[in-house]
Amino acid sequence: MKHIIQIISRRSVAVVLLLLTTIAGFAQEIDEVPEDSIFTISSDTDSLMIEDHVTDSLFADSLQKQLSVMVETTPPLKVQKDWNKWTPDPKRALWLAIVFPGGGQIYNRKYWKLPLIYGGFMGCLYAMNWNNSMYKDYSQAFLDISDSDPSTASYNTYLHLGAKITEGNMQRYKDIFKSRRDKYRRWRDLSFFVMVGVYALSVIDAYVDAELSVFDISKDLSLKVEPTIMNNCSSNNPLQSGALGLNCCLNF
Fold first, then answer.
1. Which of 130, 142, 134 lies closest to 178 in space, CA to CA?
2. What pLDDT is stored for residue 95 in this prediction?
């Protein structure tokens, strides 16, 4: 037994000595590594980290520049107008109607009014032209019948078949030609003023139509008529203090 304990103690001492020798050799190898190699490794690591940081920053800057160029060069998207909610501008409609007859109605999208406006203009122009030509003809006829030159006889065009102008009826024909001349001149001037009135009416209609485009009209458009009793406070007679009538109520 004592011999066995001695063998175990010897073996444990040998193992401990072996471990101490291994640790001492590893420490000596670490001491033999030069210091400049350690700094070189650390500096290389720092340089790699710096290079990675610089590369990332340059990539971020270039990406930001490309995005800014794309934003600047990209055309803005057109916003589609909702024509159901569009309302005309009264001032713009007024100026368009003044500059171009019917332009205000086109701007307000009331195209059905254009035939009325242009029909009125065409009718006034036709009436003015026709009345002016008749005025010139009867003016010339009156001048021809008033002078003493027998070669100027344009008034014969307006005489009835077989009718002749003599000394007895000359004054009557002079009065007829003069009255017709004045009548057609008056109608010509009236046609011009009517045309100006059509123009002014088209301008007023364009402005009022644009103003009333935002006017809120209730859907309850109705007229109610119901009987009512009207009190007469001025009469002391109780039989005459009230009267039966109708009450009209208009909702719009």
1. 142
2. 94
Q: Greater confidence, 231 or 121?
A: 121
In three-state secondary structure terms, 145 is: helix
Q: Which of 171, 173, 188 is nearest to 134 (CA)?
A: 188
Q: Which two tokens stand for residue 126?
A: 């036709």
Asked whether the beta carbons of 159 and 138 are under 8 A apart, the reply is no
Mean pLDDT across 119-146 = 91
Nearest by Cα to 213 from 90, 80, 81: 90
Residue 3 in tokens: 């011999």
Q: 191, exposed or middle or buried, with CB in 10 Å at 0-12, 13-18, 19+?
A: buried
- Residue pLDDT, tens place only, 161-194: 667 777 777 788 888 888 999 999 999 999 999 9
Q: What three-state secondary structure class fits 230?
A: strand
Full-model pTM: 0.54
Cross-strand pairs, 251: 222
DSSP 188-229: HHHHHHHHHHHHHHHHHHHHHHHHGGG----S--EEEEEEEE
Are 102 and 203 contacting, i.e. CB atoms less than 8 angstroms apart? no
The per-residue pLDDT for range 20-35, each reduced to its tens digit, is: 566 555 445 544 544 4
Q: Which residue in 205, 186, 208, 194 sits closest to 120, CA to CA?
A: 194
CB–CB of 105/113 below 8 Å? yes
Structure tokens at 239: 């039989």
Please give the pLDDT value at position 146: 80
Find out whether 173 and 165 touch, Cβ atoms under 8 Å: yes
Four-CA torsion 42, 44, 47, 51, nearest 10 degrees: -130
Coil, helix or strand for 69? Answer: helix
